[in-house]
């Protein structure tokens, strides 16, 4: 197992180098110069001022030189100073990570708490109206664009009913540790982020449960005279859940990337919102730091998923 | 306003220093009077002012500020030596009062005896010097050129001197200091003593100005969490990406503010901002013209309308070889007559704006009072001018000379609805006078690159300028500011307009006689040349629409400042 983990970690290196390279190329090849953009309209700046600023961010060097420096620094997790914030880009991005993780983990919990029971209920009531309703939701929940759904919720719950706040993480004037207020801000974005996953899980669980309850060992258990509740909870559900649990790692990666859109809609101050704003203002160091952090989380969560597979299901051989 | 914020990011930011404009004539744009306490009303302390913004602050060090949100918040923590009269932009003593020597080279300052930092230490001349040293040592500031004419500045920047010889603090009275410039430069008052020049607390930042510190200031923790304040509010907390919280400075030299807390709150966009003003989640913010009627219908809100120091225009590349028609003044004049800008203001800005026919917006003291051609919408006159220029109308309804039709492209940045609509209207109306426009939309950053580097693909373009307190138009209009692709120099005179008298007037306005009356004369010449030559179709200057609750008292905003008397504001219970 240890060799497996080490090997998987080594595999992650070329992936990260590829992400770093692509990010560098995309930012540099996209039209627009960050310093020209940053100083646009500053009519009293001299050309020397602008050149000094360009030099301070290493943008006066040739592209290959910039790339070489960038890779060497990136290997040490250094991405340079943000052009706008004058501070280390990675530390700025990391400051926002707890907010993104809060959102992603809350969404994950919602997916499991809502998605799993829905799938099981549908399977147990196969063919009945409730099953049809869950299946219908499974399709709709997956098809609805998250940003649109978010806006609809804001119109209903924030603008019309005024039950929930639509922006940010805390009401003005509330203490940082006001958990109740934080939860009120969290409900809508977490639910919107969770929606596709809830739909997925409900469909997934339904199929898995239906599969499992047709297995011989279930029939055997029933034949032994076990209460049907016990058969279901101990024998059926447990096995149906295995693939769900193992998929969690990958889902977390999906949630972190999905948060990018949701964070815009709800002005949720996370990594996605911050990186997106940086992309709009061509703040190269922040863009690369944000993308690399996302990339690392992605690689890490896939690694966790693969390990989880190996641990939970002995049939999967560690190669 | 969102679109402009982006265009002009740095400019306005500088609220006085980086920027352009200085004192003032009476307001000609629409303004609403302040709401001072009605008879019988007694100001009461308390409450919280919550301002909405689309973007977070970037820094709280005025030396590093280069964006509007940071400037807005920093300005409430670090007070400036002078302040601008909100209505006419006239500079008035604030933290300091000043006199200028007869040769216009030395500025003598005396800081208010009551002016203290929030921790009780006095604000001194040394604190001004500290501010300058910080700028000189920072690698990331965009402000160095503001101080380049101060004697000894360069030696300090280059590390050849341990102090700036032109700045002298009176040893007998530390509140007094003088600043000597190497040459006369009229914008110096605004540039070198405005919001990006301190004073900065020596007892806090002094440690970063010692020799051998290099650019330590760029990494100072006080840049994001200031520990003392000279302004009406002190820093409490910055919840990144969400809100910045300031509390009142009890030691403020003009008296402790009445409102307890100031919060700068980030919201997604203009729609959310307007909605939150209605619900009271925000109680200070500017709205777009489309939301004005809705705001005015709210019983609990009131709207202040006043001219902004900015304009949106259509620029012409007057040296274009691919669109030679634009080289002809008569064609450009025809384009001015041929576009109904009053109708544009009515439809795009819901009437909340003013047609422009020269560079300085009417609210600025530098704007000429009269004598400008207003270019009223007149299709017949436009076509007459095209005929005079030697063009004849072809079978397709387009004017042409030597077989070449008057045809050019106009590019605007995509996503900016105001500019997109202006482009559409211009295309249609110019077609009606026999001029063919090929409308194009491009990403803002692509446009910025092409314009500032002098890319000759550009024939016509739509963008905006935001001006500051100092009206010096050198950076936008002087011939040295024409971008030159061959020499790889950039500049803001994108359309390459130049004219000997014009350059002379600009130069005299910045380094001749610095009295406002003399400068105004030079800017009159400057604006009249622009008005006649029409290197831009000058477009319009929008109104700022500031929304606050009905019960907010003592607020008295204007073109040049909205929060100049913030410490006196209060909420009627």
Describe the structure.
- The complex is a heterodimer of chains A (319) and B (573).
- Chain A has 319 residues and is mainly alpha-helical.
- Chain A is 76% helix and 0% strand.
- Chain A has twelve helices and no strands.
- Chain A has helices at 2-29, 34-38, 47-56, 63-75, 89-124, 129-143, 146-160, 179-212, 216-223, 228-265, 271-280, 284-312.
- In chain A, α5 packs antiparallel against α6, α10 runs antiparallel to α12 (284-312) and α11 packs antiparallel against α12 (284-312).
- The longest helix of chain A is centred in the last third of the chain and has 38 residues, at 228-265.
- Chain A starts with a helix and ends in a 7-residue tail after the last helix.
- Chain B is α+β, with helices and mostly antiparallel strands.
- In chain B, 26% of the residues lie in helices and 20% in strands.
- Chain B contains 17 helices and 23 strands.
- Chain B has helices at residues 2-7, 9-13, 68-77, 125-137, 153-157, 188-193, 202-205, 270-279, 292-296, 329-337, 341-348, 379-388, 417-432, 444-453, 474-477, 500-511, 516-533, and strands at residues 48-53, 82-84, 91-93, 96-100, 106-111, 167-169, 176-180, 233-239, 243-248, 261-266, 285-286, 301-307, 310-316, 353-355, 392-393, 399-401, 404-405, 407-413, 436-442, 460-466, 536-549, 552-553, 570-571.
- In chain B, strands 11, 12, 13, 14, 18, 19, 20 and 21 form an eight-stranded mixed sheet that branches. A four-stranded mixed sheet of chain B has the order 1-10-9-8, with helices on one face. A four-stranded antiparallel sheet of chain B has the order 4-5-7-6, with helices on one face.
- The longest helix of chain B is centred in the C-terminal third of the chain and has 18 residues, at 516-533.
- Residues 1-34 of chain B have low confidence and may be disordered.
- Chains A and B meet through α2, α3, α5 and α11 of A and α2, β10, α8, α14 and α15 of B.
